[in-house]
Amino acid sequence: MRLTYIGLVIMCVAAFTMRGSAHHSHNAYEVTVWSNLEGIVKEIHFIVPHSWVYIEAKNEKGETGLWALEAAGRQAIMNNGVKPEDVRVGDRVKVRCHLLRDGTNGCLLGFVTPMHGDQARGHGIEKHWD
What we know:
By secondary structure, this protein is α+β, with helices and mostly antiparallel strands. It has helices at 2-17, 74-79, and strands at 35-45, 52-58, 64-70, 92-99, 106-114, 127-128. The chain has a five-stranded mixed beta barrel with strand order 1-2-3-5-4. Strand 1 and strand 2 form a beta hairpin. The relative contact order is 0.20.
């Protein structure tokens, strides 16, 4: 009985201390092809597990629409040298990303280049967001 109790305690400790490593795949995105977009930032959400940037940009047909760009979590983005003030709502940005396979306005964000004209906030410097 005592051995069973000790085994149960060890399993519980292991279960609560192990870091979760599961993650969903990026199958919704065409990850073999980089696409370029340029637009105006409408919203930014630095959150966990994935941050989101929404920009107003034109698609390949020249139609303007709102694009949802999925990025890494807040800490991963900051670890890449990005500061929250680098890109703000209203800023023009260029992005390189992997488009959604279904053709809707969304992509897996790879890189962001601010085009806001403010050198102190990294104008023209491409940074990794995933």
